[in-house]
Amino acid sequence: MLTARPLCKLLGLNYREYHNYVARLRSDWKHYHRNEQGSKCSSVHGWRGWCLMPAGLDRSIATATGWVATRARNRWLLWKDRLGRMQWFETDRVNLYVRTPANLGKAYQLVCNGFSFTGLITDMKVLEAVLKSVRFKGAHFVFDTKERLPYLVIDLFRKSNGVVIKVGDRTHPTSVEVIASYMDWAERNEQLLSDILTVFSKPYPPPLKDQRYIT
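Request: output the structure for the sequence above.
Response:
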């Protein structure tokens, strides 16, 4: 937003000598797409996701490989290591929680640690299918401004799009924090569409040879 004169003053340059040069650099930075400075996320934390396990995995031997049985009524199993933790439900769904700094690669590694390296999944094709099923559920994206900001919470889009914006909170006083969540209704719609496509992708059975039609 600064013009050439205050920029020269900040840089300690003689305005009469360098104002054309500084103005050109400013114009290139602002308008030339290769030099344009976009918003860069300084950190990602609270990354959550989920994936689906193939039916028939033996949960009874999981506790001998590092998984922990919980007292939950739905009997989910817990896996914890330096990358994060997982919740394995009897419905074959696995919830993923990746530690900071979080990314999709760490989510893949977490799944491999809990299922491939423990011997629960030995077929690489099955493991590849599991990794392809990994889906994003939510995360906190922090954009640091390097200046202290007033506290503000914008939750207008929480119910419609699963987005909450926090500015200048206690944990990140100089940052804008975007909390994004994949809505449950969107997840259900995605699963419904996948089930419909699976049904319609199946070939129709061939007609019986002795079948007769009335015309």
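DSSP finds six helices and nine strands in the chain.
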